[in-house]
Amino acid sequence: MAQISAPGGVTRFSAPPPTQDGVVPQNQSLNQGDFLRLLTTQVQNQDPTQPLDPNQFVSQLTQFSTLQGITQLNESATAMNQSVTASMAARASSMLGQRALVPADVAVLESDGGLRGAVAVPSGVNGPVQVQILDDSGQEVGRIVVQAEGGSSGQEELVPFSWDGKGPRGRAMPPGTYHLAATANGQALATYGGARVQGVVLGSDATQTMVDLGALGRVPIDDIRQLTL
């Protein structure tokens, strides 16, 4: 219902026009054109002896423009969120079946007899890096030596390694999860474990998108350092 000031200071109300069934529509919203027509009618019917306060007129226009701006901003934010979600879904689907490298002290020995991982070598650390492969009981079943060439850039170097799954006396170890331990010059280093991406759980505004790495569990998608076939 619109309020209009009539001549003589008398206020009258004009109701929305009824529909063909004689029922007044509910929850009708005003657009900018409707709002301006109401203001124009208000000015045309104002009392000449008590004209409309220009400050009030400007204030009403400002309030409506602010409300309209907020509405448009919300609509833009919703559209952007939908676009980001679609982009994340496309990105996640492309990961399926690939080997992801994530911060972990375990890695998966696959049925083809390959285990992949990496060592995070701090800047300035050079020389051989010892990588131990341990079973669930803590027994060493494999050892790998890789060379680190840590620079002085202040950033860690990610040194990859692989294990063929051959244990003591060249015996093939069963597929599954194995523990990693890396050292250089007597210093323990962080490791990255590799596993195949088996699924992706898309997040929302309150939750992160998670990647299912099978035996390594679910990890945030942002934790993936590297993807390989």
What can you see in these coordinates?
The radius of gyration is 34 Å and the shape is elongated. Helices cover 24% and strands 35% of the residues. Strands 3, 4, 5, 6, 7, 8, 9, 10 and 14 form a nine-stranded antiparallel β-sheet that branches. It has two helices and 14 strands, in the order ββααββββββββββββ. β11 and β12 form a beta hairpin. The N terminus is likely disordered. The chain has two domains: 80 residues, no CATH class; 130 residues, Sandwich (Immunoglobulin-like), CATH 2.60.40. α1 runs antiparallel to α2. It is of the alpha+beta class and 229 residues long. The two termini are 65 Å apart.
What fold name goes in the CATH topology slot of the largest domain? Immunoglobulin-like
By DSSP (H or I, 4+ residues per run), the number of helices equals: 2
Q: Which structural class best describes the helix and strand composition?
A: alpha+beta
Uncertain runs are: 1-13
Percentage of residues in strands: 35-45%
Number of strands: 14
The overall average pLDDT, rounded, is 78
Radius of gyration: 34 Å
Structural shape: elongated
The level 1 CATH classification of the largest domain is Mainly Beta
Summary tags:
229 residues, Immunoglobulin-like, 14 strands, 2 domains, alpha+beta, three-stranded antiparallel beta sheet
